[in-house]
Amino acid sequence: MATFNRLVRAVAEQEGLALTAEGQRRRASRPVPVFTPTAATLPGELVMMDSTLLDVMVVCEDGKTRRPELTMAVDVATRSITAAVLRPKGTKAVDATVLLAQTLMPQPMRPDWPEYLSMAASVIPYTRLASIDARVQGAAARPVIRPSTVVIDQGKVFVSRCFLAAAEHLGITVQPCPPASGHAKGHVERGFGAIGTLFAQYVAGYTGNRLATRGSSVEDEACWTMPQMQDLLDEWIVCGWQERRHARLRHPLMPRLTLTPNEMWAALTGIAGHVPIPLTGADWIELLPSRRCAITDEGIRFEYRTYDGPALNGHRHRSPAADGKWEVHHNPYEPWQCWVRLPDGWAQAEWIHRSLVSKPFTDTIWRHIRTVATRHTDRAEHEDHLARHLDELLRRAHTGQTSATRSHKSSSLADVPGQRAGTRRARRRTADTGLPTDPAEHLPPADENTPPVPGSAGTAASAGAWSIFDAHQEAQQW
């Protein structure tokens, strides 16, 4: 009977009769005949990027458990995951630009990673690469690929001005695919499915890809924070995905031999070669989101923050543009500073109330402070009031005086983003964002070609050798 029902559904879908919602979805995602498989013969020739929700519950900054959003890039020629970033739902444009930068930069080894995860211990031609690219020294066994063409969907993150400007700055062609055409970027879509079956289902808080397969209290099983989950995913990509044989990867001279992504990259690198593209501090600033702001006597104002510095003198109330404004770049994960493009280069301006806040914070926490703090004074006093409220919140989170309840209730100013992350999130800020702590500090002199290595200050811990262990106890030890 089950076989008969499947045949009836197949005939009905083929004739367009009585299609269910699932059948309509499958037909909408089906490629239009005649379908030609996507092929690439060189590393970076075609890179596909997309975002999806990871099938794992994580503990967010506010103490609540949610599914994070995974954004990653997959190289078609080698099937390598060149970069992957986890963020709360609502990925920003700067997160997508981080992916572009990470594909060009080696993955740094974490202090507690075993030596066999390094590039020197892998099949990658480390000696030849190190002779032409000093950045690979001490790097993990993950390919460094320069994308030539990036395939994206119509998501607002990928078609944003920030992402398109970053791709243009790096010399990358952006190729958008038509709406509702998942087959156009099938490699990254299948990569998401592989992460769910090979990685996510072994992590505490796994939700499954369907509601029918989900447990009754998955939220109570979640114990990993967002930075911890990012570390686990990074380690799995190096030791799990990049070292796993892929049926579609075949050596050009030995077609019967299946290869791993690292082996395929090593084979194609000998044909295509490797050209290092170091990113300087100025390049990192170019990748950040931008906006147009005026330089007044008080400085630069946006998002109820005022930035000022001696470098702005001589440019106040002056601008070569017709609108009287300047191009300002800022990092949402480090909102205590910004950079202004002046005629003689980039100039850094700091938040005037930075001395009042003793701990690092993000734009998400700042927006929350703005919603809970009522304005009763003028703008200058209100900004000072917001800064003091922010410092009070961060101090409470740092000392652990308040803790988030698992009942998902937050009624006071203390039960807001940041309290569950504690000091570890502050120490791991660079590894979490993928951007340098202070790009201006890494601006090289004219004769320096060595770029800053993002994430080198991060500290990580692995979950053992993927053996059976108590995930809650392991997460607390972090």
Q: Pick out the low-confidence regions.
A: 402-469
- Give the overall form: globular
**Order of strands, widest sheet:** 10-13-14-15-12-11
Radius of gyration: 24 Å
**Secondary-structure element sequence?**
HHEEEEEHHEHEHHEEHHEEEEEEHHHHH
Tell me the major beta sheet. 6 strands, antiparallel
The N- and C-terminal alpha carbons lie at a distance of 53 Å
Mean residue pLDDT = 80
Strand content: 5-15%
**Tally of contiguous helical segments:** 14
What's the helical proportion of residues? Answer: 25-40%
- The helix/strand class is alpha+beta
Number of strands: 15
Would you give an account of this structure?
A hairpin with a 6-residue loop joins strand 13 and strand 14. The chain has helices at residues 2-15, 21-28, 93-104, 126-132, 161-169, 186-198, 226-241, 261-272, 281-286, 363-372, 379-399, 422-427, 429-433, 471-477; strands at residues 47-53, 58-59, 65-66, 69-75, 81-87, 149-152, 173-176, 246-250, 258-259, 290-293, 300-302, 305-308, 326-330, 337-342, 345-351. The strands form four sheets. Strands 10-13-14-15-12-11 form a six-stranded antiparallel sheet. 31% of the residues lie in helices and 14% in strands.
In a few lines, what is going on in this structure?
It is built from 14 helices and 15 strands. The termini are far apart.
Features:
478 residues; alpha+beta; six-stranded antiparallel sheet; 14% strand; globular
Secondary structure topology:
Layout: H1 2-15, H2 21-28, E1 47-53, E2 58-59, E3 65-66, E4 69-75, E5 81-87, H3 93-104, H4 126-132, E6 149-152, H5 161-169, E7 173-176, H6 186-198, H7 226-241, E8 246-250, E9 258-259, H8 261-272, H9 281-286, E10 290-293, E11 300-302, E12 305-308, E13 326-330, E14 337-342, E15 345-351, H10 363-372, H11 379-399, H12 422-427, H13 429-433, H14 471-477
Parallel strand pairs: 1-6, 6-7
Antiparallel strand pairs: 1-4, 2-3, 4-5, 8-9, 10-13, 11-12, 12-15, 13-14, 14-15
Helix pairs in contact: 3-5
